[in-house]
Amino acid sequence: MTDQMRPAARTTRRRGQELVDAIHRAVIAETAESGVSGLTMEGVARRAGTAKTSLYRRWASPEDILVEAVLRHYPQESPTPEGGDLREDLVRALELFRALMGEATLGRALMAVFAEGLHRPELLERMTTEVYEPRGGRFTRTVLKHYAARGRSTRAGSPTSPPTSVRP
Q: What pLDDT digit, counting tens, does each position of 111-168 carry?
């Protein structure tokens, strides 16, 4: 086959959301493998198959990429709209959390974030304000607030005050 007959080679260069998705997957995998303190732009770029300059155009640090990636992948619990079964909604929220922490890569990355937070409380504060709170706060809080708004539990979100409509 001559060069004129050969189809053009397909480019492997990714752009836009495809590139961002690859970078998010890479930073989560790097965090799961190396921990937060082991994150580098070089490592994330290598794993994502892109140049460091692609990262620096959008993020100032690997931690910035990590926060954005976790925000994008962190699940949000959603109680039943009519607020019919508090117990079932709480069980579903806890199952969602269990599934999240059981995920091989994202769960390990989050455990690395929590571990790093023992030494760097500002990291946990950042994750709380930029990820957890925008996604509903701690697991079960969204459900408890939902039911409290409907008069179905007391002091929503209070760990010392059990909801009033939980079935035994």
A: 999 999 999 999 999 998 998 887 766 667 777 777 787 777 655 444 444 444 433 3
Q: How far is CA 38 from the centre of its chain?
A: 19
Rounded to whole angstroms, how far apart are CA atoms 18 and 33? 23
Helix, strand counts (H, E) of the chain = 8, 0
Instruction: Report yes or no on whether pTM surpasses 0.85.
Output: no
What domains are there in the chain, each with its CATH number?
14-66 (1.10.10.60), 74-168 (no CATH)
79 within 8 A of 2, measured Cβ to Cβ:
no
Rounded to 5 degrees, what are φ and ψ at 5?
A: -90, -20
